[in-house]
Specification:
This protein is α+β, with helices and mostly antiparallel strands and 161 residues long. It contains four helices and nine strands, in the order E-H-E-E-H-E-E-E-H-E-E-H-E. It is elongated and about 65 Å long.
Length: 161
């Protein structure tokens, strides 16, 4: 029976490349001189450190621009509020969302069931598997999901006949 998986993944190499490009730009720009602005890749996401809140905001903007140029969908990036750090500096955590959590998976299941196509969907960890008897029905589901506004980027993998 034909099937495919709906997932939400991030290309971590592109994230690293975007951070490297942002670091190079920050190092060259005059407005970042002597601000000790840096990016740090941590387990949950990216930490931005700088001398002031304004420089953190500017560094976040530089990073966002680089992420877009590297093809990273900004739906998978969530900026937290800027916090004061030790020594009169500021920091901001940028969370990277990967995978489809249970609530979003349930919304996706409901949306697929409301399409009234002859397909079944089931939650499998941080992915949703969709199966059907006809390949055309599955392709129609993919078309509807691509057109749908969802709060995380969706990819369609493991299409099997």
């Amino acid at each position: 029976m034909p099937s495919f998986d709906v997932v939400s993944k991030i290309d971590h190499n592109e994230i690293k490349n975007a951070i490297n490009q942002a670091e190079k730009e920050v190092a060259q720009r005059f407005d970042f001189k002597d601000t000790n602005t840096r990016y740090e890749l941590v387990e949950k996401g990216i930490m931005i450190h700088s001398a002031t809140e304004d420089r953190v905001r500017a560094a976040h903007e530089v990073l966002t621009t680089r992420l877009v140029r590297r093809g990273v969908n900004l739906k998978s990036v969530e900026a937290q509020k800027i916090e004061p750090a030790g020594g009169g500096t500021a920091k901001q955590m940028i969370l990277l969302r990967e995978g489809i959590d249970q609530d979003r998976a349930k919304k996706l299941n409901k949306y697929i069931k409301d399409l009234n196509l002859k397909v079944q969907s089931q939650i499998q960890g941080d992915a949703v598997r969709i199966t059907g008897k006809k390949k055309d029905d599955l392709q129609e589901v993919i078309g509807h999901l691509k057109a749908m506004e969802f709060d995380v980027p969706l990819q369609f993998i493991n299409f099997r006949d």
